Automatic annotation (TrEMBL):
Homology family: Belongs to the SLC12A transporter family. K/Cl co-transporter subfamily.
Catalysis performed (reactions): K(+)(in) + chloride(in) = K(+)(out) + chloride(out)
Identification of the protein by name: Solute carrier family 12 member 7b
Name of encoding gene: slc12a7b
Domain SLC12A transporter C-terminal: 668-786, 797-1028
Organism: Oncorhynchus mykiss (Rainbow trout)
Amino acid sequence: MPKESSPFINNTDNDKGNLYDGKNMALFEEEMDSNPMVSSLLNKLANYTNLTQGVKEHEEADDDEGPAKTKKPSPALGTLIGVYLPCLQNILGVILFLRLTWIVGTAGIMESLAIVVMTCSCTMLTAISMSAIATNGVVPAGGSYYMISRSLGPEFGGAVGLCFYLGTTFAGSMYILGTIEILLTYIVPSAAIFKAEKKEDEAEALLNNMRVYGTCCLTLMSLVVFVGVKYVNKLALVFLACVILSILAIYAGVIKTAFEPPDFPICLLGNRTLQNHNFDQCLKTMEVDNVTVTTKLWSLFCDSPDLNATCNEYFTLNNVTVIQGIPGLTSGVIRDNIWGDYGPNGMLVENKHQASEPAADTSQDIYMPYVANDITTFFTLLVGIYFPSVTGIMAGSNRSGDLRDAQKSIPIGTIMAIATTTFIYISSVILFGACIEGVVLRDKFGDSVKGNLVIGILAWPSPWVIVIGSFFSCCGAGLQSLTGAPRLLQAIARDGIVPFLQVFGHGKANGEPTWALLLTGGICEIGILIASLDAVAPILSMFFLMCYLFVNLACALQTLLRTPNWRPRFKFYHWALSFLGASLCLSLMFISSWYYALVAMLIAGCIYKYIEYRGAEKEWGDGINGLSLNAARYALIRLEEAPPHTKNWRPQMLLLLNLDSDHAVKHPRLLSFCTQLKAGKGLTIVGSVLEGTYMTKEAEVKKAEQNIKSSMTTERTKGFCHVVASSNLRDGFSHLIQTAGLGGMKHNTVLMAWPGTWKQSNDPVSWKNFIETVRETTAAHQALLVAKNVDSFPTNADRLGQGTIDVWWVVHDGGLLMLLPFLLRQHKVWRKCKMRIFTVANMDDNSIQMKKDLQMFLYHLRLDAEVEVVEMHDSDISAFTYEKTLVMEQRSQMLKQMQLSRTEREREVTPPPVCRAHSLQQCSNRPSTLCPKWVRVVFGLSLLFFTVTLVWYRNQSNVRRMHTAVKLNEVVVNKSQGAHLVLLNMPGPPKNRGGDENYMEFLEVLLEGLNRVLLVRGGGREVITIYS
């Protein structure tokens, strides 16, 4: 199967290795595996043969028997046979023969011309857009579906492709209904199964006959398509000949009316048109052997044939008149047909120029043999009914694989076919209005001309030319719809973008879409059960209009985006024309039927969302991706103009992950917490660092990215993944903090896990990297979140019950501590948790006033939280604090003094000597290696109980900091040990890097005894405001 990314279709991997031979290009020999020589490329293009498509493939599969199959020559159809005539056959059809005269009579010549011009302009503009797309490279099997899907992406392609499929299927229903209408109304009316006893039951009887015969016809046609579709193709020429002969007969008849109008008398009672089925003479009475006798017409309006019988009042008051149904071109009847005559269902067809005496009682009119409207008529209804007569413009693009030069034939053939049919329709509207009496035009089923097809009585030499021609034309169009629709569905199913349709991609051994044909028949039956041609036509109009709408949008989008691959050979297009075509399509949808339009758009929208969430990932280089890139570029440029306002601030996360030895995510709960904190909003960049160079770590980097993306999918984290290789982890994380993001879409918050094993590790690099990351974020004015015991954090599937999120607000950080719990509670995991805010008061603070002020502050922030002020009394530094400080400084001094290798350090087990002097004088006389300058300690003799006395301390701040950590930890543990999450201000690292290890000890003491903790360090700006 050729790849779409290949510059030519028949690209295979069989000739790899034969791309380079010789020494002339030795400089490029290492590139020959991935980049072929130009000579090889040109050779393949010269030997290029396009793909055959459609039913040709299945015909060849049927004909090729035996183990040795002969290779078929490539088809080579020209513009006339390959595009022009198929489009002509598909455009001209059932509406022209069965409804155009009625539309002209109902809407009038002027409004009918408006309908024709609107619809033909729509298809002409669509053809221009389609020509541009079709000439922008090769269009393989799939035709219009392929063009739309590859231009607008799989979501739009699938949605519009299925709409086009439904339109083609309902078109099959319409053609079958047209076939049965011609059969039962004009060829063999006696074949009707359901017969109306009364006039008012005629419409229902006709619908039931249409349903029965339509179902039988559909079954027969489906069997023909299933058994031998090649016979349908061979009969296509016959069906086309029927259409052309019928149109020529119409023009011949029109010319003949100028000299010798045909004799088709119309009987009028007053100004009302009568159904001319049950009487031969348009007379009330007649003289037979000098005796006045009543006629058959009399018996239709009177209760007996006697002259003194009781008759209908209107019949009594008005006389009967005979007029010619086709006065001819020179009669001047065109003046009477300029304007329309709309009316409700049941309105009688009347000649306004005839005298009439109105009757007082009109209740019996519906039972009389008058010609009346069978539906309520209005302009927009006629637009929907007429539009299917201009569809079929895709016939050329659907055969693109069978053409000698598709890029030349499709534009010329399609546009010429539309121009030809537009001329036929416009001339037909004018000529019908100029030749045929208005009451006959408004007679949909020809009841006033003895049940003849209205357009048939105009034809020369006989009405049967049109009747038989239109019958076979509708049969052929129905067969072609049942042939094309299953293949379109099969193409969509084989693309794999709609999972539930995959079963319809299978078929017979030769590829015949059996299952798709069954579904098509089932949907087609729905249209047949509707049974009314006038009701089915607007339905398929919606689906075709939606398809044309997106063809125009695809062309406009590609033109405006100016993608490098957009190089159509057809140059007579413009984005404004495409937008005009799209606007016209959308307008026609709502003009025809606003509720059908909404239903069609709803169906397309549901399919779009289904493919978006459940469909296969496809990268077709479509215009939507290009549009997204341009929109993203524009938005990024706008974002960079100024930093976001405080009201728009939200955490844009850079998530720093640690990976294990297999490059898997070590703490996946960090991704879960990020998802809960973001609730799917804003930017998330997940980054990690591998130690080494990219040249040596390329495979590992890609593997790590795949693992991270897999974890992101599992944890439902929406964002971007970025793994870098760096000579050391410290520089790698620094590069991520500095460079992650693009333009104004950069992170403002860094989330990472607490290095839980920093004490157990003999290598200080881990905690040094952590502290340097803290410094980096502070210097970059970015917020920092550090999650301790992150593996105990809830997953996205957990639902925390009643509990609290405790915020310990010690110093003001811009309001980030307040904002984070609010964001967390938007997620269903934390939704039931309440928020508590604790703040610390010193001895000289008014704790009562502080609580009131804090409650008022939270009220203005629109945050619901309990407030508590915790008083921390000044107390003496305890012996426990001194002991913790001493242990910390001993460990620090030990790491500083031991400049050993890793293996030697592991063997070192004895602690450094500690001064155990009994007097200050003895200690001062000892060497400095045994008694460091910065500590003097007097130990007691007992090992179980001792007192630490600070004699002299070079840096008193360590003790004070340890005292703060111990006291604050006591308070936090006392108040918040049972909380679901504790948020706490994160103190900054010391400016003097010599005390980094002490900083880690302070934090460890501060967090001791707490389960889930989030340390928060603000980025130096306000992130929450009381203003609206």
